Amino acid sequence: MTTPVAPLPLNTPHRFYRGGERILAFRGLPVPDDFDGHRPEDWLGSTTHLFAEGGDGVTHLTDGADLPSTLANDPHGWLGDAHVARHGVEPGLLTKLLDSGERLPVHSHPDRAFAARHLHCDHGKTEAWLILDADPGATVWVGFRDGLEAEELAALVDAQDERLLASLNPIRVSRGDAILVPAGQPHAIGEGVLLVELQEPTDFSVMLEHDRFGLAEHDAFLGLARATALESVTREPLTTAGLAGLRRRWTDVRGAGAALPADAEEFFRAEVVRPADGEAVALEQSFAVAVVVDGRGTLTTADASGSTLDIASGDVLLIPHGAGEVCIEGDVTVLRCMPPLERRSDPPMTDRESGPS
């Protein structure tokens, strides 16, 4: 079965926080008359549902078919034999565009062990941010500056005040920053940031801040007892050296190279593709979400169709494994987001859902 490269339509479920105008501008789309200001995430190549807030999130392609059904109809063409053998018929990745129209709450995500034990899921939610644009002085926060005892963390969550944010490491960000956020690390994204986010394919968040955002406690703690949910939070300090190991600059890459620290590869892969001096860049075969972040160029596939597509900033494409080797040429920059090659020490994926029903 032929599996052509597919342009991805906008997929912006309603969220509890504000944003979305930068996503529309990046994708070259007008702001609709009925835009409600709460569409801050564009879920790309998604087989994942929101944990709450209506359960939306799954990608539908331009022909109207939902992505899980599309993958199931041709799993080997879309994902490749080795991926299907290891992980089954799911990408093992969720990619988003995220526009923070306001500061997000302090929150964290469970790791795989916690998710398997308490949420009946093989995936936790390690994530990473590739900053596309940021207002001057824009800030994100990752990890506690000082270690906390369990009772101290519980007290901060009880208080629901600014001390929780003040306990985290602030990081000024600008275009080109890349930050890996391991599962368990508390974090927040400040107002005025547009980024590409890669993550494990769940919507599991422990909302340490929730009152000011009007979130129900049941949803804030994933339907678990509060004390149980807080066990998923890393309370040890994230040191200066530890934080440095989670960061790099994706704009430093020329030709093609990794956008993220090596520790990300257990969970997902991100590759910067930037042809230098007019030289075409050949990329190995892989299922991928490709986000064109700058310039114009062409993308040529090595499958039987040998198709060539014109690509430009703001384009978002779903590239099947069956497209074969992909060649990118021109004055263009592409972020290619891909599943992990291996899940270290993990058995093959089961048929369990990505979240509770």
Give an overview in words.
Helices cover 17% and strands 29% of the residues. It is α+β, with helices and mostly antiparallel strands and 357 residues long. Strands 1, 13, 14, 15, 16, 17, 18 and 19 form an 8-stranded antiparallel beta sheet that branches. A 6-stranded antiparallel beta sheet has the order 2-3-10-5-8-12. Strands 7-6-9 form a 3-stranded antiparallel beta sheet. The longest helix is centred in the middle third of the chain and has 10 residues, at 150-159. Mean pLDDT is 94; it is low at 345-357.
Describe the protein's topology.
Elements lengths: L5 E2 L13 H6 L14 E4 L22 H7 L1 H5 L1 H7 L6 E6 L7 E2 L3 H7 L8 E8 L4 E6 L5 H10 L3 H4 L1 E5 L4 E5 L5 E3 L3 E7 L6 E2 L9 H4 L5 H5 L9 H5 L2 E3 L5 E4 L10 E6 L6 E3 L4 E14 L6 E5 L3 E4 L6 E13 L19
